[in-house]
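ok here's F5/8 type C domain-containing protein, seq below lol
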Amino acid sequence: MKNTFLILIGMLLTQSSMAQQEQVIPPSNGTVASLEKNLLFYADRKFTVTQSGSAQLPVHRLFDGNMEPVYTENGINPSNPYVLLIENLPSNHTQRGAWIGWSTRYFQAKRFKVEISESGSNQWKIVADVSNYDKSYYITPVIGTFVNKIRFTVYETVQDQNILGLSEFFFIHPEATQAYDNLFVKYNSNGFVGIGTNNPQEELSVKGKIRAHEIKVETSNWPDYVFKPEYQLPSLTETEKFIKENGHLPEIPKASEVEANGLSLGEINNLMMKKIEELTLHLIEQQKQIKVLENKLESK
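and the structure came out like this:
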């Protein structure tokens, strides 16, 4: 039964890594979980992730869900092994089933160790100490505990120069993650997040509507400088001339630019407030002129 289970997992991991997706089916205890329950998705942004030893990997690629393999630039020195340390995990009990593992396409770990540190303890507990391993996947259960830290140590790989390859390092923890968390967003190689788009161009790109009770935009250089004596207020004649020649207000982007590039809320609010303040000064001046004319008419 155990061998059949491992073979099944291996087939699933190998096939799905080519499709940039993975599914893991734990033992038949009435529970089914997959990488949608991976607590370590973007672990480098949510937790504390460090590496040490004689080799390094691009850490963010180990947790981005793309299942694309990365490799160390040099071989691992067994006396100074590669160590991946993940700390500050949430304190959720693993109940009857949680699973730690990894997958790769080539150059898998041959001799390695997986350890956990339980919440409230500074001691390391070995959950796997493996030698002469030759498969491109690995998974081990972690049952009935609170996992605060995970340490993955690699001493030797199947590659003759001891180069290590990894596609994804995961911790499937159904009690700590909600189903389909993060599956409706797209993360690119820069860590930009897209909702409704596969090509996010900013830290957050949304193709669709956003509803919120309040949106606060941080900005600088708020245009109260318009009210300072040294500010050169453009005349209405100058503004009229600019509009006739360009078809839009000075400093305000034209329609084609907005349609192509969108608007920065902080920048456009600054510009709009600047124009409001300029108009206010013009209105004040006009009101003064009107008052002078009224006084002249009343004196006649």
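fwiw The longest strand covers residues 147-157. kinda neat tbh
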